[in-house]
Amino acid sequence: MPYLWVFMRRFAFVIFFSLFSLTLFASSLVRKAKTAQNSPILLLEIVQDPAFIKLHADERMQIYSMLITAYTRSQQSEEQEKLLLKLLHDSTYKPYWISLKVSLGSLYLDQDRLIETSKVIKDLLRTPTRRLSSSDSALILHLFTKLEKHCEEKIQEAEMAYKQADYVKACVLYQYLFDAACQHSFIQTFSKQTLQSFLDTLTFRLATCYFLNHHYKEALEIFSRHCPDGDISTLYKGLIEKKLTHYDKAYSHFQSVQKATDFIQWQTFWCAYQTNQLASIPPVDSPFYADALHKRGLFYWKNKKADNALTAFFELESEFPTFSKHDEVLFFMGILLDKKGHDARYVFAELVHDHPESPFAPEAYYRSFAEQEYAKGNPQAISHLKKMPKSYLRSPFGIMATIYVAAFEQEECPQKGLSTAQVKTLNEIIESLNEALRVSDTIDLPKNFYAHIIRAHSILAECQFTLTNFAEAIASCQALQKRISALPIELRPHLQWYKTAFLKSRALLLLGNELEAREELTHMVEYAADSGFERSEHFILALIELAQVRAQAGEMDVAHKLLNKAEGLASDEILLEVLLEVRLAKSQLYRKEGQLDKAMMLLSSVINERSASSLRIQAMYLRAELYEEKGRRDLAFRQLQTTAKKGGEWAERAAKKLEEKYGYE
Questions:
Q1: Which of 206, 208, 229, 541 is the most exposed place for a label (fewest CB within 10 A)?
Q2: In 3D, which of 110, 52, 54, 57 has the Cα closest to residue 81?
Q3: Residue 304 — φ and ψ, nearest 5°?
């Protein structure tokens, strides 16, 4: 019995000492927490201490509250939210559920998470299982007041941004409030009647902001699904469908508007015009009447009703001379008058004079003469193009003007024996065409404009060749061939391609690049075979050149085949001049082979041809040379005498030879 008593006393002492020690340790943790209450790191260490779990729930909650406050001060929202959710799901801390829930709601509100805050308040306002204490009621009221203030501030901020036309910011704020409204976040904040009014205003503002920010699909969805029906909503839906180019739907909306103002009438008319209809035009006293007349004229223009279009444009021009698109009205009037066979030059002249900076001015200036007058080289028409303002030259019609002037002036210059003035003219042509081609690469040109650009390259190459700038001519020919090759084969101008390739081969020969010239001529033959287009003057001339190159290389059989093919292609009266060149080339080939009789026969056939071609005189001169090779100086002398009387380059050669070899003047 005494031993039992001793044991009991010792056991009680141990229990008492343990409890006392635990109390002391718990008190030390609490004191340590109070000391580190501003440091989330130190507080987190205390919470993670194994002895922390031995504390009383109230003491643990006291330390957790310190940690929550520390997270708030250091703006560690994510950690704070995780801790609050953890405590709310722990039944140990159920007595503190309301304060924890209020803290979570306040955190959400600070993060502009209105929907989550609203859900928290709904949870708090549910009928509790026990009566709320005055402190809990005060916490809930504080959060509710904070929510009301937050909503009020956001609404005022959105309205201010809207009034200041900062529609991007306003749209973000209205969308924030709209999303919350869709989740019924304002049920506890507004009365039912006030809430509906608020929602109507909110959705209208949001849809309007989307519209003003050019987000038309989003605006249309809100107007269609959330805004109440009415003239304003219908008008906006019409304007949005118009922006989306759904003109038939827009037309239907505008027709549904009950109050037909001038603006509505104009929008209805405009959409009808876009859908190729013609709605009733707004009244004469409407501010949109002039615009409607303009659209009516364009409507009739599109539908090829020239008389009706002219009537509309004439009324607009006479009644509204200060109309904003007066230049466009004059332009279409000129086009229509021209198509009906009337003189439209005075209309185009008025446009250029009154609106020199108009985008229609270059074409109006160009259309003062008919296209065929420029093509024929009418001196008056070409003179008009030469006077075109420099600012218009950077337009498609300015480029065309440059090309027509260049073509006219090039024809005025011979290929040989250029005067100083003609050399200057050719250099000016080259400069103007180079500038026109540079401009053509920087502006949008009509799809059918390629023919004019190709012609510009061709004239440029020919002028450079005439001035013996053979390297530049070759570069221009290559640029032209590149442009032609880029076209679909059915659109390629084959004749122009042959002409260019032939000019390039001649330039290469004159530079002494016989190998490259031969390759170019061979390429011409291959191109002709691929395109199936061989009956061309320049292609036949290329065959002659290639035959001569092959003959110089000693390939006589190949040269004969090429000339025979050329002769077969030239057996047409239209190509008579080329046929004579083929015969001259064949004659020279036979002469080179020593077959003088065959050569003589071919020359005689050229001489006896009924043609005014200078090739006949050349054949006479060459026949005199054959007579000399045969030892028939008497016949050669008489042939040279006859040739010298004909005039031209070969006559001059004949006269010179008579003087040098025969002492005949």
A1: 229
A2: 110
A3: 60, 40
